[in-house]
Amino acid sequence: MDFLENIEDVYNELDESAPTQSTDDTAYMRSEFCDEHVLEDITTSAVQEFFESDEIRQPPYGQANLEQREQYLKGFYNKFNELTGYTNNLHFRKGMEPNNLGAFNPATKQIELNADLLLENDPQTVMETIMHESRHAYQDFAINNPEQVSVEKETLNLWEYNFNNYISPEFDFEAYVNQPVEADANDFSERMFSEGFCNAA
């Protein structure tokens, strides 16, 4: 669940059925400026709405088939991506390695998720993975467009250095988890899920 893990595989093994998307700037960023607090509010609200909707939608997530679950999750993703637009598309791909939950592709601005995540009746893992990879998309955008985000320059420099000196989990898993871009994405996804879920309770 990282920014560059198996990125060559992402380029070479994209499911042919996946839709291709434009990568022009208008598709990539829809708002002129995004404050981090606004981004967090949008994301936690999307989590909250997902669970509140699940109380009345038929079938609920845990009883839905895989196609329905995918649509529910894409609706969740669209809720917080519609304003910012840091990514172009969310795609579930079959055949990914079990330990590879997902990846953000910086070339296409697309997120790919392991389709096996849809097999779990509890949506927490897949929702956190969506937010984790979306956070990598935000990090990528922030580095390349510092004037359009509220991230401090020191943090942007740290993220950029980390991406240029990325630690693969196969090389050193502990260092991989603790490197700045992964620690930030993990913190973001876990906090947003926890806050949104609690607000819905």
Question: For the largest beta sheet, what order do the strands appear in spatially?
Answer: 1-3-2
Q: Report the total helices.
A: 8
Computed structural class? mainly alpha
Radius of gyration: 16 Å
Compact overview of the structure:
This protein has helices spanning 7-12, 25-28, 36-54, 66-84, 124-144, 153-164, 173-178, 180-200; strands spanning 89-93, 102-105, 110-114.
Q: How is this structure best described in words?
A:
The chain is mainly alpha-helical. It is 54% helix and 7% strand. The protein has helices spanning 7-12, 25-28, 36-54, 66-84, 124-144, 153-164, 173-178, 180-200, and strands at 89-93, 102-105, 110-114. A three-stranded mixed sheet has the order 1-3-2. Helix 5 (124-144) crosses helix 8 (180-200). The two termini are 27 Å apart.
Question: How does the SSE layout of this entry go?
Answer:
Blueprint (H helix, E strand, L loop, with lengths): L6 H6 L12 H4 L7 H19 L11 H19 L4 E5 L8 E4 L4 E5 L9 H21 L8 H12 L8 H6 L1 H21 L1
Helix pairs in contact: 3-4, 3-8, 4-5, 5-6, 5-8
Feature tags:
7% strand; mainly alpha; 201 residues
